[in-house]
């Protein structure tokens, strides 16, 4: 193309030159004529002559300018493409760019294409978190969902509702339930004719995952599981029969849950038990299935210790932990997080569960974890975090703002039943424009407050997370 | 022993006779003591609405006492006040304001006595070696000169002090504009009338953002937030658990307190200690607002057995309500609901009181201005 470009202007130039020469010859001939006539003619011709060569030169210049501009634009485009091809590294998800309308439009279009209903944003938003979704639980998200064959599998819809209503909580429970639902989806899946299982199944999974994300943002454990799923699906050999492939996939996913959750739980209990001695007063925060398992196992070995359960509003998940521990026969105390300084002089150890471990060593847990670890560290009480290795993620965060889940603010206000009491009523909240309510779900604890992390790979410092991630990525 | 009907009748008549003789005197005494008793009863039943209200009531009660009882000289007056003060403090030992007020009145009496005698105030205060060795008046003889104007001057001084107390919230709020600048994010916990007035005063001239920690289980933070939002101050309510997460965005923490201890530490609402620690970890200044009458002579270890009278444990149903706690599983659980927290002075950056701003390390000096060393033990 470039050679053609070069050819064209030169040819054009030649043509222009020829025409210019012809006109000059005409001028000379006409100038030899009568003066008056020639004057007139001259004037006319001069006029013509004045315009004509200019127009030709102008045309030439114009064309040259245009072509150069086109050339420059093309080179720029190519550079940009090259750049964009290089920089396809970590991309910021649309969930963290809620304040950017373009990104949100794109995301909304994507959801429409996948036939996934979209949640409406809440009315009153906390400005500090305007980059995150702030929903209010209004109408059920599944109100308009159809049950056609192109829609989402009913097991996934059920799961989504269970997440949204808070029936299934806790990262291990959510991950196990997800795997269960996906196994059902795979079992019911039939490859349409002339399509490959691997590719089409993935396209079936994408709307399901978007739907679950809309019901409740995905947890780190679920993200890890989904990654594993995708890898397994892409690795299906193309010559395997569909039935066999499905069976293998289902058994792989079940093995994932078994190895990473069940077996890991036992391994962690064994090592964490050795950290609890007779006469200990162990403090726990909220409800973590892993920590409850560890304490039960330690109690069964005959150690004599008691537990202080610290709880935080509005979820009050500590009551669940309290029930489990009391049933096992462990002596328990219960306080709210504001009384942590009151009870801390009695405590000898703190055991915390984690939602996820970040690559820079920070621990992401339910909101309040950082406060408990800080209070413990200030009194010299060791803080031990128990976390399965599949919850390690490549994300990095230094504070709890950049990435978090904002819950329904009305959870903090007075419930409809109680008419009196100090909590603000919903109507008062709606009427006061300057009043906002923030319901955070997670927070991020710096590694200096924690003594160690107990995983099934051993007892590690918090900063070993990227090492473990590397080791695991070589394994899979 | 068998009593005949006549004998019984005799005894009762005699009893009635004795009773009627002393009845009149007793009635008079009763009338006086009724008022005192009523006040003590009110104290025991906590019929007051916060520390300002309580301080006001106590000092008015003491003023009445000074005007209504008969006393000959300053020492007798101080004895009367001391006796009454002991009763009041015993009625409600967890409220240190009562003891503070009693000691303040005693100090006022001493000051007025000395002033009327013509000596300078410093003379009464300083205990120099020379004075100790060559003092003409022994401790017993001191304050025993009968002065006619003592009653009026003491009453005046007490009224002045009451006015000062009334104006204390206003004086503290007037300093607000010095400490809050535009677009600041301020964190507070619980509900303190001083903090409310402080923030509202600053909001008249500056635009800033307030984060209120709700302060479970009493949830006073909700009331404060509603009140501030009604004044068009941008307010956000957060749970206690989110304090560490939010602290990185906070510029200042401003809290009120129940009392200020002698070492500069605080007896503040439950949850204040973790807020103070989180602020310390993030290098955010902690400003405490409180009028001078909240400053008390006690140290953290003085308060008998530290946990015994320092903290008040409220009913645990606020933490774990009866329905949940009554179930089979949870009947053996110990539930605690403390109302106060001790905040050590190292975590406090500044005290703002009606007389200005001070560092916590200076608070012990202010004690000597407010209370006389001989009154430390009532």
From TrEMBL, chain A:
Gene3D superfamilies: Translation initiation factor eif-2b, domain 2
Keyword annotations: Cytoplasm, Initiation factor, Protein biosynthesis
Principal subcellular localisation of the protein: cytoplasm
Location within or outside the cell: Cytoplasm, Cytosol
Pfam family of the protein (one): IF-2B
Compositionally biased residues, Basic and acidic residues: 26-35, 55-83
Low complexity composition bias: residue spans: 36-46
Bias-annotated ranges (Basic residues): 14-25
Keyword Ion transport tagged: no
Family: Belongs to the eIF-2B alpha/beta/delta subunits family.
Subunit structure: Component of the translation initiation factor 2B (eIF2B) complex which is a heterodecamer of two sets of five different subunits: alpha, beta, gamma, delta and epsilon. Subunits alpha, beta and delta comprise a regulatory subcomplex and subunits epsilon and gamma comprise a catalytic subcomplex. Within the complex, the hexameric regulatory complex resides at the center, with the two heterodimeric catalytic subcomplexes bound on opposite sides.
Protein name as it appears in the record: Translation initiation factor eIF2B subunit delta
Source taxonomy: Eukaryota, Metazoa, Chordata, Tunicata, Ascidiacea
From TrEMBL, chain B:
Source organism superkingdom: Eukaryota
Origin species: Clavelina lepadiformis (Light-bulb sea squirt)
Transmembrane residue ranges: none
Keywords: Cytoplasm, Initiation factor, Protein biosynthesis
Family membership noted in the UniProt record: Belongs to the eIF-2B alpha/beta/delta subunits family.
SUPFAM superfamilies: NagB/RpiA/CoA transferase-like
Keyword RNA-binding part of the UniProt annotation: no
Protein name: Translation initiation factor eIF2B subunit beta
Summary of subunit composition and partner proteins: Component of the translation initiation factor 2B (eIF2B) complex which is a heterodecamer of two sets of five different subunits: alpha, beta, gamma, delta and epsilon. Subunits alpha, beta and delta comprise a regulatory subcomplex and subunits epsilon and gamma comprise a catalytic subcomplex. Within the complex, the hexameric regulatory complex resides at the center, with the two heterodimeric catalytic subcomplexes bound on opposite sides.
Record localization: Cytoplasm, Cytosol
Keyword check for Cytoplasm: yes
């Amino acid at each position: 193309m470039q050679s053609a470009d070069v050819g064209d202007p030169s040819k054009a130039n030649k043509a222009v030159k020829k025409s210019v020469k012809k006109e000059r010859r005409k001028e000379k001939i006409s100038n030899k004529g009568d003066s008056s006539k020639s004057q007139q003619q001259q004037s006319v011709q001069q006029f013509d002559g004045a315009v004509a060569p200019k127009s030709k030169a102008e045309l030439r210049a114009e064309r040259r300018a245009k072509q150069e501009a086109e050339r420059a634009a093309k080179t720029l485009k190519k550079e940009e493409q090259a750049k964009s091809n290089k920089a396809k590294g970590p991309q910021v998800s649309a969930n963290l760019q809620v304040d950017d309308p373009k990104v949100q439009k794109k995301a909304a279009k994507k959801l429409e294409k996948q036939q996934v209903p979209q949640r409406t944003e809440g009315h009153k938003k906390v400005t500090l978190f305007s980059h995150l979704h702030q929903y209010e639980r209004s109408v059920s998200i599944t109100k308009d969902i159809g049950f056609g064959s192109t829609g989402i599998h009913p097991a996934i819809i059920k799961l989504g509702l269970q997440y949204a209503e808070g029936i299934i909580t806790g990262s291990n429970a959510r991950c196990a339930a997800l795997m269960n639902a996906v196994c059902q989806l795979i079992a019911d899946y039939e490859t349409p004719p002339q399509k490959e299982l691997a590719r089409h199944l993935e396209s079936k999974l994408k709307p399901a995952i978007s739907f679950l994300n809309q019901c409740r943002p995905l947890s780190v454990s679920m993200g890890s599981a989904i990654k594993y799923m995708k890898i397994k699906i892409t690795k299906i050999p193309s010559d395997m029969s569909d039935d066999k492939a499905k069976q293998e996939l289902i058994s792989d996913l079940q093995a994932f849950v078994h190895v990473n959750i069940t077996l890991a739980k036992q391994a962690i209990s064994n090592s964490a038990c050795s950290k609890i001695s007779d006469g200990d007063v162990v403090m726990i925060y909220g409800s973590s299935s892993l920590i409850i398992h560890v304490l039960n196992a330690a109690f069964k070995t005959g150690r004599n210790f008691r537990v202080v359960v610290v709880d935080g509003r509005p979820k009050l998940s500590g009551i669940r932990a309290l029930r489990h521990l009391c049933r096992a026969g462990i002596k328990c105390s219960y306080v709210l997080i504001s009384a942590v300084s009151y009870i801390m002089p009695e405590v000898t150890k703190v055991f915390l569960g984690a939602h996820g471990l970040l690559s820079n060593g920070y621990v992401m847990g339910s909101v309040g974890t950082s406060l408990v670890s800080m209070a413990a560290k200030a009194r010299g009480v060791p803080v031990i975090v128990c976390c399965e290795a599949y919850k390690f993620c490549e994300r990095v965060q230094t504070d709890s703002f950049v990435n978090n889940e904002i819950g329904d603010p009305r959870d903090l206000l007075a419930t409809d039943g109680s008419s009196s009491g100090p909590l603000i009523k919903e109507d008062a909240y709606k009427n006061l424009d300057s009043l906002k309510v923030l319901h955070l779900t997670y927070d991020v604890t710096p590694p200096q407050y924690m003594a160690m992390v107990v995983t099934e790979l051993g007892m590690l410092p918090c900063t070993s997370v990227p090492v473990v991630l590397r080791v695991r990525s070589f394994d899979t | 022993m068998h009593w005949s009907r006549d004998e019984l009748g005799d005894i009762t008549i005699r009893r009635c006779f004795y009773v009627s003789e002393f009845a009149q005197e007793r009635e008079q005494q009763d009338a006086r003591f009724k008022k005192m008793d009523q006040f003590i009863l009110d104290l025991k039943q906590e019929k007051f609405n916060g520390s300002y209200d309580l301080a006001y009531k106590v000092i008015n009660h003491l003023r009445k006492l000074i005007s209504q009882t008969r006393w000959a000289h300053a020492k007798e007056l101080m004895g009367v006040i001391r006796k009454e003060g002991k009763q009041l403090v015993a009625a409600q030992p967890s409220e240190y304001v009562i003891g503070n007020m009693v000691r303040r009145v005693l100090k006022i009496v001493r000051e007025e006595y000395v002033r009327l005698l013509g000596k300078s105030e410093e003379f009464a205060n300083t205990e120099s070696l020379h004075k100790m060795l060559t003092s003409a008046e022994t401790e017993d003889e001191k304050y025993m000169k009968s002065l006619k104007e003592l009653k009026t001057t003491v009453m005046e001084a007490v009224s002045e002090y009451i006015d000062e107390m009334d104006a204390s919230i206003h004086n503290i709020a007037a300093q607000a504009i010095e400490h809050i600048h535009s677009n600041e994010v301020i964190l507070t916990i619980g509900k303190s009338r001083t903090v409310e007035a402080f923030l509202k005063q600053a909001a008249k001239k500056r635009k800033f953002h307030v984060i209120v920690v709700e302060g479970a289980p009493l949830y006073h933070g909700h009331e404060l937030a509603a009140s501030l939002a009604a004044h068009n101050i941008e307010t956000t309510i957060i749970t206690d658990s989110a304090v560490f997460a939010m602290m990185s965005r906070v510029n200042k923490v401003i809290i009120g307190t129940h009392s200020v201890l002698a070492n500069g530490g605080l007896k503040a609402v439950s949850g204040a200690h973790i807020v103070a620690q989180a602020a310390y970890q993030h290098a955010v200044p902690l400003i405490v607002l409180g009028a001078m009458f909240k400053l008390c002579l006690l140290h953290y270890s003085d308060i008998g057995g530290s946990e015994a009278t320092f903290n008040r444990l409220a009913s645990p149903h606020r933490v774990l309500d009866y329905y949940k706690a009554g179930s089979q599983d949870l009947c053996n659980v110990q539930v605690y609901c403390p109302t106060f927290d001790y905040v050590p002075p190292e975590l406090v950056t500044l005290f703002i009181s009606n007389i200005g701003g001070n560092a916590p390390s200076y608070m012990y000096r202010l004690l000597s201005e407010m209370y006389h060393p001989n009154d430390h033990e009532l």
